[in-house]
Fold DUF2620 family protein.
Amino acid sequence: MRIIAGGVAKAEVAEALRPLLRDEDTVVIGTDMDAAVQLKSGQADYYLGTCHTGAGASLGVLVGFLGSDKTHTFGRTVPSAQAVQDAVDAGNLAFGFALDQVQDVVPLLWAALDAKREG
């Protein structure tokens, strides 16, 4: 699985995600434009974007390129594991959350994404 971390706290997202990944998985730091192109072409699987609110700049470009049915924002709240699972199960490829929620949201998102591949 290839994940792109973007937004204000992109380095923190990548750092939080790396120890959770399997050997064959990668996380790279990129921009929302990079992510849009790579997700659309199949070169990346998911985008995790952060901004101050988790709803605006974290996903703006991705909503435009992928559509609102492929993007999900958790906003300023720490979602429950079920809410994260529901967002992943809905087919979203890009997820936005607030930069001060990285340590809480990243492990929840990874667990749901990893479980999805197991099918």
Observations:
- Residues 51 and 63 are 15 Å apart (CA to CA).
- Residues 2-118 form a domain with the Ribose 5-phosphate Isomerase B; Chain: A, fold (CATH 3.40.1400.10).
- The radius of gyration is 12 Å.
- The first helix runs from residue 10 to 17.
